[in-house]
Amino acid sequence: MSTATAPEPVVTGEDRLNLRGQTLPRWTPLAVAAGSVVLALLIYFVTPVDSEIQIVLMAAILFLIAMSAASTVVEGARRARDRFATTLVYTAFLLALIPLVAVLVSVISKGAKRLDLDFFTHSMNNIGARDAGGGIYHAIIGTVEQVVIASAIAVPFGLLVAIYLVEYGQGRISRVISFFVDVLTGLPSIIAGLFVLSFWVLALGFGFSGFAGALALVVLMIPTVVRSSEEMLKLVPNELREAGYALGVAKWRTILKVVVPTALPGIVTGVMLAVARVSGETAPVLLTVFGTNLINSNPFSGEQSSLPLYIYSQAGQPQQFAIDRAWAAALVLIIIIMLLNLIARLFAGRNRLK
Amino acid sequence: MATRIDVNGLTAYYGKFKAVADVNLTIEPKNVTAFIGPSGCGKSTVLRTLNRMHEVLPNARVEGEVLLDGEDLYGPGMDPVNVRRTVGMVFQRPNPFPTMSIRENVIAGLKLNGVRNKALLDERVEESLRGANLWEEVKDRLNRPGAGLSGGQQQRLCIARAIAVEPQVLLMDEPCSALDPISTLAIEDLITKLKSSFTIVIVTHNMQQASRVSDSTAFFSLEKTGDPGRLVEFDKTSKIFSNPTEKRTEDYVSGRFG
């Protein structure tokens, strides 16, 4: 293997300082993994084991045992433990990936069927569960309007609360506000819907509307926006605030022009996550927007639809056409949320602290 | 420009803790005054009381008076924001605003206070950066982020930012402690140059630095941890370092004291 130009390292007798160690070749994990899979398949075919999941499980356990044994023999106990832990970490990573991949695969494979131009340009007007065709035009309008209105209310409100808590709040009031924000974070979304239904829709008599749905989403968004903005504002070094004050800049101006811009990428990411979360909310929208098959682009009056609501109503009908529509709408919803996340990440990356 | 500061019976607290007690001293205009002393003796605290930055920390308060050309900074009706426009400050660690370019950093104090005149701002950028001996190094990259400069350049950028608002007094809280000897030398040269237009007060742990740059020196110390710091001796720098009155000062400047 060695050539004349690259001399072998000279190892004379023993390594007196004990700095060297035996290492398994780089290809060992791959070879052991392949061997484990083959062995697991053999067991599957020979013994009365009859579940495919058990192949994976057995292969994983075999890999763990074989790798640890080989490593203990060749490399010693410390490196064997390291390899064991590494294997566990990678296994956990792969396990966590399974649901994500499974959801994506099933939604894409089942949803792509109805994903044509008609689907985006038509509503469900005059289309029953047994009919082909129909679309999500009205649902997209509803979702976009509700989420935009909810964000327009919740983001400034939440940001101001966060600024108060981090920059001004001291003592009792801020602790109380902080506590209620925590309580609100754990509020089940249907409770937010019930609250708006009983207060805004029924007691005040405004009736079902996209705006009522937006109000329910506001209740859900505020705590997320407050918490994430608060964490980001806390990360801004105090030195920057002091630098502002020392230049004779008033506190509110320092906050507006120095502190918030410095924290902005993180705040944007937090806001986008909150937007993504509420765009998929079904229960509060069901109670406050009610849902309709018709196009209603006025969010302030009359029932609207929304994507989660559309999926819910279509998936509940035992007809293939309706179920196909539900899958396609689910795919569209996932794509919209992924796009939002992507935009947020691009924005956050562009403005990162240099 | 340049202003005289009289400190009378100044005591500063952090909550219930008395950090420094009963300080009396006079800072001459267009002079460099150095504060030296062991850690925790209150020299930075005293410095921060001179432009009301002390009270920015929660529960911090001050007793006594600080007279700026005869006017008490802590008197009724004084606006801390206006005080800080007159008494600028440079901090221990360089802290340029990370979202701003070099140019924006220099004029941050003006812009945030509502100056919109572009010609004036451009003029002030060059003037301040020249004043901070930084112009030649950055004139071709004024729109690059300020945080991309080296540590020494960042500190000079912060000095340029501080002098751009045209204060009367410049406070420096260990401005060289995060810098290498060459950058330190650059800042010390700058301090000597700025002395002709500003009253300068500098806190330093480096006694050679104090003897190199300052005209007067105040030595602070404390008996033991938990006690308030006190001003031990205040005199001409040459006297403090050659023939101090107090035994403790002599021990400290000659290195016999912890």
TrEMBL record, chain A:
Stretches assigned to the ABC transmembrane type-1 domain: 140-344
GO cellular component, one term: plasma membrane
Gene3D superfamilies found in the cross-reference section: MetI-like
Keyword Transport assigned: yes
Hydrolase listed as a keyword: no
GO annotation terms (biological process): phosphate ion transmembrane transport
PROSITE patterns: ABC_TM1
Compartments reported by the entry: Cell membrane
Superkingdom to which the source organism belongs: Bacteria
Main location: membrane
InterPro entries, alphabetized: MetI-like, MetI-like_sf, Phosphate_PstA, Phosphate_transprt_permease
NCBIfam families noted in UniProt: 3a0107s02c (TIGR00974)
Family of this protein: Belongs to the binding-protein-dependent transport system permease family. CysTW subfamily.
Alphabetical list of PANTHER family matching this protein: PHOSPHATE TRANSPORT SYSTEM PERMEASE PROTEIN PSTA
Protein's recorded name: Phosphate transport system permease protein PstA
Organism: Frankia canadensis
From TrEMBL, chain B:
One CC-aspect GO term: membrane
Example GO BP: phosphate ion transmembrane transport
Single GO MF annotation: ATP hydrolysis activity
Superkingdom assignment: Bacteria
PROSITE patterns: ABC_TRANSPORTER_1, ABC_TRANSPORTER_2
Gene3D superfamilies, per database record: P-loop containing nucleotide triphosphate hydrolases
InterPro entries in UniProt: AAA+_ATPase, ABC_transporter-like_ATP-bd, ABC_transporter-like_CS, P-loop_NTPase, PstB-like
Name of the featured protein: Phosphate ABC transporter (ATP-binding protein)
Gene designation: pstBA
